[in-house]
User: Fold these one by one.
Assistant:
Number 1:
Amino acid sequence: IGANCGVYSVPLGLASGDGSRVIAFEPNPTMIGRLGHNIALNNLTHKVRIEGCALSDREGEAILNFRGHNYGQASLIPVPGRMNSGGALVPTRPLSAFTHAARHHDFTVLKIDVEGAEEVVLNPMLDQAKVGGWLPDAMLVEVRHADQWDSDLCARILNSGFRQTMRAEGNALYIKKR
């Protein structure tokens, strides 16, 4: 989630076995083109699917705020004190719109880096998990912008049956307890 040019999606596609699928969520039209190019260059069109939307807590549209030419820092959340350099109206969808098929896979990994909007995407999933909703087996969550969250998302993840196994370079890796 927040696939950018495929820094995670392409290596995962290359390393995964037959029958594996990678779904790369990227809302930025410029980056969708670059991501598609990188997927094709690596002969992964049969394994990696691009969803050209921003994941959010609802279906609709939102402004994706750009910060200079670093499209990896684009966010649905405007950051006070940081200069925005335009944006694009992008479609938004909830993560739950995509999780039904994930229930049928042996192992699922969710990687999310959405520049401060992580709780907007993950909180509905964590809420639904309380009543039998889907949870991935592992999550790599960018926590660098936790100061922008309204709640303690890391604590919510831990309370949803995960253990933190690593925290480095602004990311935390959570593995579902068995």
Note: The chain has four helices and nine strands.
Number 2:
Amino acid sequence: PILDQMSEVYHHPNSQYWVIVDQHDNVLGGGGIAPLLGDSTLLEIQKMYFLPVLRGQGFAKKLLQQCFDFAKTQGFYDCYLETTAALKEAVSLYERLGFQHLAQPRGQTGHSQACEIWMLKALEA
């Protein structure tokens, strides 16, 4: 449902979505951040997608840094995400950027069946 209403979802306070486009305005990737459903003290990294042509070029790292900077400007101290072990490169990137694995999910995303990895990053002041 969120994918059908992204412009509405990311138009709310403490929410933002960024896209990466090529010279012809074709969307090649994107990602967002919004309050975690069920725990408004956290912002959740959401909907991170990149076409294969972008992978390995640092775009995900730059976009995540944009998310971290946005979260700090909104007064948040931590970022949360949920992912799956099938996305090995993404999990590795999250670990390199300081995300720590959690034993159980936070909030109420409803992704617990599909996403068995839960991570939290403390934002630097």
Note: The chain has a mean pLDDT of 88.
Number 3:
Amino acid sequence: MTHYFFTVMPLFVVFFWLILFLLDFRRNDTAKRFLTLFLGVALVNYLAHWFYFNHNYPVYRLLDSVWVFTSLAVYPLYYYYIRLLTEDLKLDWKWGWILIPAILLSSFSTVLYLLMSPAELDVFTHEVLYHNREYRVGYPLLVRLQAMRLVLFKVIFAMEVLLTLYFGLRLIRLFNEKVHAFYSNVENREISKIRTLLFFLVLTALISLVSNVVGKHFFSDHPSLLALPSLAHSMALFGISYVGYRQHFSIRDLCQDQQEGECCCGVESESEAMT
């Protein structure tokens, strides 16, 4: 029962916040709507996790490639959410290229699954994805390619986390500088919440890097330790969602205030010229 609870906890957290964001979807700005998309992708990802850790082999084999896509999509999507808060005034579909690694590796996984025989699927599932049987050498080509895909996933995921952390922190820092440069009083604007977002970005990145290095098969082999990543991911997801839900000030508000300030300056200049 305890094991089941910890497998479902991150899924429940994401589902809870996704419902709240969907209820306000029409009233939300572009950034919050995009965060809703992020939560939807995360929900599918943790649903696949739930099937994996509860050893539902047939279903997880169907969802494994989906899990690859969602896992490699969440950090690029989170980065672009930060851009919508701090840099971009509207969605720019040119940024769709950040999902190319997720699309390519998940497609590669899907093709391999379609080509594998029932015997190869059985070997890959029970000896590579899970360690139910002793790991051996001399696997068929398709099983070796799937094992290579798992290694590629870890490398790409680690790179995405580090790049999101670096460029995300940079966007937040530059945005805070813009806010301080324009407003004499940054209270209710400069966003202590963006600073909190920065904290959760770092926290989530660290958790993801550790989980990626260890591998989810480790927690499948040691179910008593599953509580650690489950609690950590749940807290990080709750924090990201809470900060995003409470965040009301963004680059759009800053640009609007700057435009209004320019208009006011123009009116004052005309008045001085007439007197």
Note: The chain has one domain: 2-267.
Number 4:
Amino acid sequence: MKQPSSALLCIDLQREYFEAGRPLRVPDGASALANSLKLLEAARKIEIPVVHIRHVSLKPGAVTFAPGSRYLEFADEVSSREGEPIITKTKPGAFYDTDLDVYLRSRNIARLYLCGLLSFMCVDTTAREAHARGYEVVFVSDATAALPIGDLSADVVHQVVCAIQGWMFSTVLRTDDAITLLTGELK
């Protein structure tokens, strides 16, 4: 079976989510970051396009994702390399008011692998937008993570998002299986 042309979207792997003391520090962020790095290395090795997505807040006086803040920078482990585009977004979805769709379609991309943060916010929204635009979406469950919401633990929130994604919008895989598919070995 010939693989569709694929791309990896690294969504909001920014210091805002990983540094101690930040309001949006993700409890399981280190694990999601490590798995995102594995995906990124695999994509680079086989020369699959990689797109880095960065969130910036336009709210005056923003505490998180504030323009000019060092927390907007990507985590060192997953920084972009020359030739890897950076798409800056101001809403949860990476397609909204950006040139992401134009970039992907100009390269005949059909399948998107998604990793990053937060699973229930920007990764979920981007997956839904991609699905609505006709892309095949692979939601890499252990390369994303969540925050707790109200009485729900981060793990429960994440499990619910993955279940909904798998039911309607995406193929949900763990990192190792996603890499196998990415490299064309999964039957």
Note: The domain at 6-182 is CATH 3.40.50.850 (Rossmann fold).
